[in-house]
Amino acid sequence: MKYYLGIDVGSISAKGVIIDENYKVIANCYLRTLGRPIDAIKEVLKNLKKNLSSSAEIRSVGTTGSARRLAGIMLNADIVKNEIIAHAIAASHFYPDVNTIIEIGGQDSKLIIIRDAIPVDFAMNTVCAAGTGSFLDHQAIRLGLPIEEFGKLALMAKNKVHIASRCTVFAESDMIHKTQLGIQRNDIISGLCEAIVRNYLTAVAKGKEIKPLILFQGGVAANDGVKKSFEKALGIKIHVPEHFLVMGAIGAAMLSGYKSNGKTSFIGFDKSIDLKFESRGFECQDCPNHCEIVEAVRDRQTIARYGSRCGKWN
Amino acid sequence: MKVGFQHMGNLHIALAAFIGNIGCDVVLGPKPNKETLNTGVKYAPELVCLPFKVTLGDLFQSLKKGADTLVFIGGGDWSCRFGYYGRIQCSILKKFGYEFKPLFVSSENTKSVASQILKLNNNSWTITLKNVLRAFTLAWHKSKLVNLTEELARRTRPFEIEKGGASKLEREFLKTIEEENSIYKLRRMKQKIKESFFSIKENSTFEPLRILIVGESYCVIEPFVNFDLIEYLGGQGALAEPFLTAHQWLFYHALRKDEGSNLSKEKAKKLAEPFWAYGTGGEDQVSIGHAINAARQGFDGIIHLMPFSCMPETAALPVFEKISKLYSIPFLNFSLDEYSSPTGFYTRIEAFLDCLMLRRKKIFNKSPILSSP
């Protein structure tokens, strides 16, 4: 069988999928990056390999996410694509009628507007990470709750509580303040979900036309509380696709498949899992720009450098 | 007299040619860089717009190199904060104990500034009218050549078979133009510049995306604040057209001479009038006019650059969105400040270009397959 591999390394989590020629998901893996993207990629590959028969052939590899370039260099991927297009491609394959994608990940939230199966507009949060996955994570830890239960507790809320949504700092102090007043925890969590949605709609969506069918993707889509708040705010039903966690990776795999000419440049599972790969950075001192140069080293050989404005190190 | 002033793209080449040839020494810091920005951010009011910070840092660099006279651009008839740039920057610099003579330049007082320079200079040098005319002609030629070089580089880049050739040629020619002081030689250079760019091997069947860049002048013209947007777009196979170049800016504001290539300032304003009756500062009205013109000419998309908290451009933003809907031309806005990172910037542009490519393929009924640049 012929398969495509997609890797999506974001700020908080690393995702990987293997899809077949009909873009059916054969194996997928989701785990936390924990600040070590290279190790996370190896771990993802190890997991994926377990689900693959030895005769399987990887025809092409695509990478996406904020560490797409690093992952692409490490694995010698066939295509490196931004996460907006990756999400859009995967979504419009599984749901040809999709018009809107709400994607909330660890560090950023996006809105992708799709018309007739092609992305026509998008928005990303700009100056602030309020209302993204890592903020929810932080609040779950502060309340001593596993993040997986966060959404369920929000659904059990009995009363409406307003939490400030402009900024995470305000949201947090508002939450603490309301807790100290004696308001129920579930109500506060539910208020937080609504605050996140409010923030998303004013800071990211900014009046863009949100039409059904709406898909909710990314890590935060696991949170039923946020999903319900979206439905309440928009008055439209929201779908969470089956593979909401790995849609970006699926998109990357699909894109690599489009481009594939049958020969992949991928260095292979075994080689990449045992790979001696590191990235190191230094500050170039040749001009006052002081660019931060990243150097990717594979098997003690520098294979790529990037980050310089003048192009000297590229 | 040692004169210092700010950079804006390659504007300094023409300005230095003029000031340097009427008996003054030109003392310029390096082109805007991280250090310039950090200095500016340190001394400027926190909430002021980005160009203020960068140009303030820039003037600091001139002073550190020994400038005793500073030219402040900005002031006068602008109804936005740009109108206060000169005076406030001057008072900030004075507060830090620097001694210098300030010269405030704005559109309506270019003549008086010229006479001020001559007056200031009277003691050390006798300037004849002939000298001034020569300096002016030299600056004029240099500015035109710089503009030509930039334009050819911009138009060649997306077609290049081997990436990087046009940018390299551009850098080389800009350096030659900056150093050359003979009007005769400059005149002859035009042909050479054209020939050199035309000799770059091109993929002539390639149809690049056409992108118009509009917004606040400094953000559009200065590559340091827009993360070398024009060069980046070219490298990604997109044909970028800024609505305004340093040359056009200089000659419009210094002489009220419209050097607009295909759309004059007046025409642009006329086009914008139904949406935006008058300019509120910056180049908002002209930008809007250019956006409409681009939509009519079949451009693929518009990128709008503005400093974070810029009053006129923020006010004009809904109009751009309206035009984008009305003429169905995709539009991407960036508000830039010292916290902007090139990573997020390039990710958005990459996605924008992909969207445009898919859109075009759909219009021409081709399979929606993305090619990697």
Strand and helix layout:
The complex is a heterodimer of chains A (about 325) and B (about 375).
Chain A lengths: L1 E8 L3 E8 L4 E8 L4 H14 L6 E8 L3 H8 L3 E2 L2 H12 L5 E5 L4 E7 L2 E7 L8 H10 L4 H9 L12 H13 L4 H21 L8 E4 L6 H11 L3 E2 L7 H13 L9 H5 L3 E7 L8 E7 L2 E6 L8
Parallel strand pairs in A: 1-4, 4-5, 6-9, 9-10
Antiparallel strand pairs in A: 1-2, 2-3, 6-7, 7-8, 11-12, 12-13
Helix pairs in contact in A: 3-9, 5-7, 5-8, 6-7, 7-8
Chain B lengths: L1 E3 L6 H10 L4 E2 L7 H10 L6 H15 L4 E5 L11 H11 L5 E5 L4 H12 L7 H28 L8 H15 L3 H16 L10 E7 L1 H5 L7 H7 L2 E5 L3 H10 L9 H8 L11 H13 L4 E7 L3 H16 L4 E6 L5 H22 L10
Parallel strand pairs in B: 1-2, 1-3, 3-4, 5-6, 5-7, 7-8
Helix pairs in contact in B: 1-6, 2-3, 6-7, 6-8, 7-8, 12-13, 13-14
Commentary on this structure:
The complex is a heterodimer of chains A (314) and B (373). Chain A has 314 residues and is α/β, with parallel strands linked by helices. The two termini of chain A are 38 Å apart. In chain A, helix 3 packs across helix 9. In chain A, strands 3-2-1-4-5 form a 5-stranded mixed β-sheet, with helices on both faces. Chain A has a 5-stranded mixed β-sheet with strand order 8-7-6-9-10, with helices on both faces. In chain A, strands 11-12-13 form a 3-stranded antiparallel β-sheet, with helices on one face. In chain A, strand 9, helix 8 and strand 10 form a beta-alpha-beta unit. Chain A has 10 helices and 13 strands. Chain A folds into 3 domains: 114 residues, Nucleotidyltransferase, domain 5 (2-Layer Sandwich); 145 residues, Nucleotidyltransferase, domain 5, CATH 3.30.420.40; 39 residues, no CATH class. Chain B is α/β, with parallel strands linked by helices and 373 residues long. Chain B folds into 3 domains: 126 residues; 71 residues, no CATH class; 166 residues, Rossmann fold, CATH 3.40.50. Chain B is 53% helix and 11% strand. Chain B is built from 15 helices and 8 strands. In chain B, the strands form 2 sheets. In chain B, strands 2-1-3-4 form a 4-stranded parallel β-sheet, with helices on both faces. A 4-stranded parallel β-sheet of chain B has the order 6-5-7-8, with helices on both faces. In chain B, helix 1 packs antiparallel against helix 6 and helix 12 crosses helix 13. The longest helix of chain B is centred in the middle third of the chain and has 28 residues. The radius of gyration of chain B is 21 Å and the shape is globular. Classes of the chains: A alpha/beta (314), B alpha/beta (373). At the A-B interface, strand 5, helix 3, strand 8 and helix 9 of A face helix 2 and helix 15 of B.
